[in-house]
Design a protein that fits this description.
heterodimer; A: about 450 residues; Rossmann fold; Neuraminidase; 2 domains; 8-stranded mixed sheet; 4-stranded antiparallel sheet; 32 strands; globular; B: 60s Ribosomal Protein L30, Chain: A; 4 strands
Chain lengths: ~450, ~180
């Protein structure tokens, strides 16, 4: 759908978004803002009006700006302060004038539309170094995919300025919740990461829980009560058709997650009241138990290399986090703090595990290294639950439930420093987010 | 003078217009025991009539007791729960043409998936007790709703205590077992 084309002025085809040009005046390296606890001030970025078809150019510009400022890492310089706007996309940049208003980075772009096709070119400049940062790029898209074109550009800018992988052009599966608290109506939807372009996957005829994206973003695993008993189903996102993955009998199947290569499904199977972790070959349906314990084992999540699984177990008396190899064996406990731990999620970047932690009557979303060290709470509330990682492993989304009979679940996101927590802009209650992969 | 007329007279002293044609206020529910002075209020007839309705899901839930409660984070049966389950077992043995689904539930604190497993464990504990009391195992199924279907919706222990439960839902299968 998208083509990356170099512009006439670009030095080369950009194979990776992290390309850094040879430094001319950059003794300190490229312009960069790092996602660490040390960052306290957002980087000022100028994103003047995009050139070209005014209406769609304005919408795309706004989405690019929302993506960047939504990270908390960047702040936009007000249009009124921009005294040096170029007259066209090919004009030379008056760096001096941008420096005068302390713009660290400058984004210029041009949008052209031909029928149902749009074409967006953009450039990023390091104002104080007085040079482009990375190559200019062009994205072509169907006009109806204009938001994706905007996310692609924002992803390029984010990646070049943070050194992290991008994540804006991605989707999130979730459960919409309506109706009273004791008779909630739930249905699964898929939306852009920022809440736009909602597609409904199920109707409200049966209770559905906790969708999880496949690594390629094409299908969802979820738990459905449509047979009257909780079982796992697979939804094909494009065709919106589903089929059962597990079949009733007298046991309950739930909490499914894919392996990073999509070959395996790890899930919880309950038999006679006891819940263990099972592994299923997604192609053949062959399955085997990974744990054999009289305690509750649930919420499994594959490691980023697909060789291990982190899960929740109350074998010690309270729910704690354990890691087990996919061949089985004795699991290793990795959580030792006060309280109860649950819903571990292994970062796609491989460096951290996010989890739900309950201490007393307060809930936290937290992160730790994969060996359990470096534990850090990111949030605190009456009830926070179920973190899911952005494709770049630097932001998590989760469910926050407000207390009381009229309490509602709302989706929030927070970065790994815990500093940029914000609710998603949705006009309905929702829970159980699952962040899909970066789109091609 | 009947007691219910006193408020009406009092109202007349305050607003004479309303006294022109005092309409006797009718009690909302006809109470055959009103003159006895007893504390019990008649609330209407039981659905399904009187005798003979013992073989009904309605009777089971209202007269036998369909719900047993659990302590926080616990899945073991309390003495009260055993008493109720023993009554359920008696009823099920007497009404062999009914099967039962035991629905396990958990309070809202705790994660969704852990609570599904916790509810399943509670339902299973109740099932084992019924089987030990002589109910055929193949007449009982279990499932868990976790925290998805609370009986009460407030966010404190008063509600949580009633949400940590197993509800036995009986239905007629037509054939005895």
């Amino acid at each position: 759908m998208f083509r990356n084309l170099t512009l006439a002025l670009a030095l080369s085809l950009t194979a990776t978004p992290l390309t850094v040009l040879p430094a001319l005046a950059q003794e300190d390296g490229p312009l960069r803002i790092e996602i660490t606890d040390g960052v306290v001030e957002a980087m000022p970025v100028a994103i003047p009006a995009f050139f070209g078809d005014a209406e769609i150019a304005s919408r795309i510009r706004d989405v690019v700006a929302d993506d960047l400022t939504g990270t908390g890492l960047f702040r936009e310089i007000a249009a009124e302060a921009q005294i040096a706007r170029p007259d066209s996309f090919t004009d030379a940049i008056a760096y001096q004038d941008w420096r005068a208003i302390n713009a660290q980075a400058l984004v210029t772009a041009e949008v052209t539309q031909a029928g149902e096709e749009i074409s967006v070119k953009f450039r990023l400049f390091d104002v104080f170094a007085g040079q482009p940062q990375g190559d200019g790029m062009q994205f072509d898209a169907r006009a109806s995919d204009w938001r994706r074109a905007a996310h692609k550009i924002a992803d390029q800018i984010y990646a070049r300025l943070t050194g992290e992988a991008p994540y804006f052009d991605s989707r999130v599966a979730f459960v919409q919740e309506t109706g009273p608290k004791d008779a909630r109506i739930k249905r699964i939807g898929v939306m852009d990461y920022d809440g736009a372009n909602i597609l409904w996957m199920t109707d409200s005829s049966s209770l559905v829980l906790a969708p999880h994206f496949s690594p390629d973003g094409k299908s969802l695993l979820y738990t459905s009560f449509d047979s009257g008993f909780p079982q796992i189903r697979v939804m094909d996102v494009d065709s919106v058709t589903s089929r059962p993955l597990t079949q009733g009998g007298d046991s309950m199947a739930f909490a499914p997650r894919y392996s990073p290569d999509g070959r395996w499904v790890v899930y919880s199977l309950e038999k006679g009241g006891n819940t263990d972790i099972w592994l299923m070959d997604a192609a053949t349906g062959a399955q085997r138990a990974l744990t054999h314990s009289p305690s509750i084992e649930t919420s499994p999540s594959f490691s980023s290399d697909g060789r291990r699984i982190v899960f929740e177990s109350d074998r010690s008396g309270t729910p704690q986090l354990y890691v087990i190899g996919i061949e089985g064996g004795e699991p290793t406990r990795i959580s030792f703090g006060e309280g109860r731990y649950g819903t571990p999620a292994w970062s796609p970047k491989g460096d951290m595990i996010a989890y739900t932690r309950q201490v007393g009557d307060r809930f936290h979303i937290g992160v730790m290294r994969t060996d359990g060290s470096g534990e850090k709470n990111l949030t605190e509330s009456f009830l926070d639950e179920g973190p899911t990682w952005a494709p770049n492993g630097r932001v998590v989304m989760f469910t926050r439930l407000t207390p009381g009979g009229s309490g509602q679940p709302l989706l929030h996101s927070v970065d790994i420093t815990g500093r940029n927590m914000r609710p998603l802009d949705l006009d309905f209650a929702a829970s159980d987010p699952s962040w899909g992969p970066l789109m091609p | 003078m009947k007691a219910w007329m006193k408020p009406a007279l009092a109202t007349c002293l305050l607003g004479l217009a309303a006294c022109a044609q005092p309409a006797p206020p009718a009690p909302l529910v006809t109470d055959p025991y009103a003159s006895t002075g007893a504390g019990a209020l008649y609330q209407g007839d039981l659905a399904g009539g009187a005798l003979g309705a013992e073989a009904s899901a309605q009777y089971f839930s209202t007269q036998v007791g369909d719900t047993v409660l659990f302590a926080a984070e616990q899945t073991s049966l309390t003495p009260e729960a055993r008493t109720i389950l023993a009554r359920q077992a008696d009823w099920l043995k007497k009404h062999g043409n009914f099967s039962a689904v035991l629905q396990g539930h958990a309070e809202e604190t705790g994660t969704r998936e852990y609570n599904l497993a916790l509810g399943a464990r509670r339902a299973s504990a109740a099932q084992e007790y019924l089987v030990a009391q002589g109910v055929a195992a193949d007449r009982i199924r279990t499932l868990s709703f976790g925290k998805e279907r609370p009986a009460e919706t407030c966010s404190d222990e008063a509600c949580y205590a009633n949400n940590r439960r197993v509800v036995t839902v009986v239905s007629e299968t037509g054939a005895g077992s």
